[in-house]
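dumping this here so i dont lose it
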C-alpha cells in the first residue's frame, strides 16, 4: 500500500461511519404498509414464541416480494425482522420438535434479501446488534437508559441487556476505528508523533470496550441467558439436533447449514488482530476466518484492507522508539484484558450456569442439549477463547528487540 491510496480513501466506502463505526447509523424501525404482516409478527414475536403460535402464524403469512423496499436501510430492517422470525420459527420448541423446513412464505423473501445484502441465511451479529437498535429520546445519547431493540426474542430484560451491552461495546470501539486509519496513514508516512497518538487513542478505546462489556454482569441474568437466550442464537451447522441443516422451501433444493451468532462476527476484533499482527492458532484462525463470511461484505473488505498494510509490529520493532513500543504493547495488553474478561463472562454464563441447570434437572428439559458447553457460533467456547486470548498476549513486543534494532 502507498500513501497515494489515502487520496480517495473513505470509511464510508466500507459502510463504516466516522460517528457510528460499524453500527448502522439511525436504523429504520418501520417498513412500508405492504410489509405489515412481517411487522405484525416481529412486534409480537416473543409472545408468539412463548405461546407456541409463531409457526402457525408464519405458515399463514402471505408470500411478500421485496420489490417495495426502496433503499438500503429498508432492506436491512426487513432482513433484521425476518432473521429474528427465522430464529423464532426454528427454535420455538427448542430441541423438542425441531423443524427441518422453513416455509416458502419466509424462506423466499429471506433468501432474496440475504443475497442482495451478501449475508448468510441465518441471523448474524449485524442483524441482532448493529442494526437492531433505536433511541427512546430521538435527541438523547447512546446509553443503556436511552436505547431499546427494534425486535426482540424471548429473554425479557436480559435479552434487551444482552443486545444493548453488546451494542455499547461497538459504540466504545468507534474512536479506535478512526485511530486505526490514522495509524495506518502515519505508518505509511513515517509520522511517528501521529502514530503514537493513534496507538494511545486505540488503547483507550479498547479499554472502554472492556468497561462496556463489564456491564453484562449488571444487565443479563446468567440463568436466563443459558436456558433461554442462547437457544435462539444457535445455528444449524454441526448441530446434532439438525444434522442435515435446514431446507429453505422454494429457494434452494437442498438443506443448508449455518453457524449461529457469535462475538467472533464483530469486525473490530478482527481489525485489531490484523493491525497488531496477532497470528492465532490454525483451528482458532479457521473459525475466525469463517466468521468473516457472517459479516456485511463491506466490513469484511475493511479487514482485508487493514491486512494489506505494512506490518505495524515490524515498524515499531525497527523504530527503536520506546514510546511507540510502549503504546503498541498497551494496545495488545488491553485487548488481551478484554479477551480475558470475555472468558470470565463465558465461564459464568455458560459453564457455571450450565452446571447449575444440570443440578436442578433443567438441562434435560430445557431443549438446549445441542449446545452443552459450545458457543452459539458452534465453537468449543472456553478452548477457543483461551487460545485466542493466549495468542493475543503473545503479540506483545519485547523492549530488547526494539532497542537492539
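and the seq i came up w/
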Amino acid at each position: 500500500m502507498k500513501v497515494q491510496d489515502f487520496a480517495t480513501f473513505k470509511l464510508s466506502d466500507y459502510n463504516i461511519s466516522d460517528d457510528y463505526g460499524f453500527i448502522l447509523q439511525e436504523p429504520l424501525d418501520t417498513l412500508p404498509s405492504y410489509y405489515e404482516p412481517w411487522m405484525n409478527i416481529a412486534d409480537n414475536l416473543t409472545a408468539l414464541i412463548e405461546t407456541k403460535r409463531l409457526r402457525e402464524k408464519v405458515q399463514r403469512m402471505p408470500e411478500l416480494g421485496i420489490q417495495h423496499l426502496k433503499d438500503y436501510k429498508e432492506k436491512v430492517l426487513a432482513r433484521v425482522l425476518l432473521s429474528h422470525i427465522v430464529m423464532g420459527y426454528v427454535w420455538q420448541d427448542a430441541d423438542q420438535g425441531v423443524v427441518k423446513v422453513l416455509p416458502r412464505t419466509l424462506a423466499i423473501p429471506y433468501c432474496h434479501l440475504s443475497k442482495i445484502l451478501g449475508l448468510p441465511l441465518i441471523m448474524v451479529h449485524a442483524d441482532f446488534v448493529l442494526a437492531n437498535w433505536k433511541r427512546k429520546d430521538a435527541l438523547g445519547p447512546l446509553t443503556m437508559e436511552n436505547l431499546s431493540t427494534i425486535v426482540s426474542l424471548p429473554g425479557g430484560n436480559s435479552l434487551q441487556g444482552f443486545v444493548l451491552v453488546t451494542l455499547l461495546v461497538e459504540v466504545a470501539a468507534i474512536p479506535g476505528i478512526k485511530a486505526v486509519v490514522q495509524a495506518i496513514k502515519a505508518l505509511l508516512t513515517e509520522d511517528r508523533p501521529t502514530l503514537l497518538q493513534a496507538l494511545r487513542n486505540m488503547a483507550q478505546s479498547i479499554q472502554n470496550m472492556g468497561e462496556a462489556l463489564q456491564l453484562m454482569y449488571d444487565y443479563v441474568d446468567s440463568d436466563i441467558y443459558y436456558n433461554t437466550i442462547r437457544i435462539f442464537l444457535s445455528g444449524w451447522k454441526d448441530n446434532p439436533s439438525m444434522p442435515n441443516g435446514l431446507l429453505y422451501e422454494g429457494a434452494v433444493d437442498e438443506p443448508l447449514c449455518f453457524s449461529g451468532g457469535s462475538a467472533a462476527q464483530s469486525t473490530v476484533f478482527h481489525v485489531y488482530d490484523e493491525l497488531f499482527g496477532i497470528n492465532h492458532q490454525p483451528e482458532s484462525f479457521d473459525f475466525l476466518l469463517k466468521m468473516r463470511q457472517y459479516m456485511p461484505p463491506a466490513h469484511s473488505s475493511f479487514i482485508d484492507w487493514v491486512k494489506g498494510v505494512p506490518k505495524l509490529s515490524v515498524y515499531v520493532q525497527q523504530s527503536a522508539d520506546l514510546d511507540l513500543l510502549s503504546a503498541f504493547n498497551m494496545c495488545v495488553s488491553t485487548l488481551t484484558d478484554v479477551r480475558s474478561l470475555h472468558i470470565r463472562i463465558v465461564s459464568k454464563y455458560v459453564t457455571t450456569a450450565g452446571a447449575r441447570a444440570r443440578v436442578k434437572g433443567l438441562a434435560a428439559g430445557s431443549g438446549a442439549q445441542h449446545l452443552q458447553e459450545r458457543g452459539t457460533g458452534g465453537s468449543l467456547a472456553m478452548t477457543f477463547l483461551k487460545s485466542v486470548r493466549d495468542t493475543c498476549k503473545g503479540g506483545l513486543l519485547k523492549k530488547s528487540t526494539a532497542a537492539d534494532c
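Residues 363-367, 401-405 have pLDDT under 50 and may be disordered.
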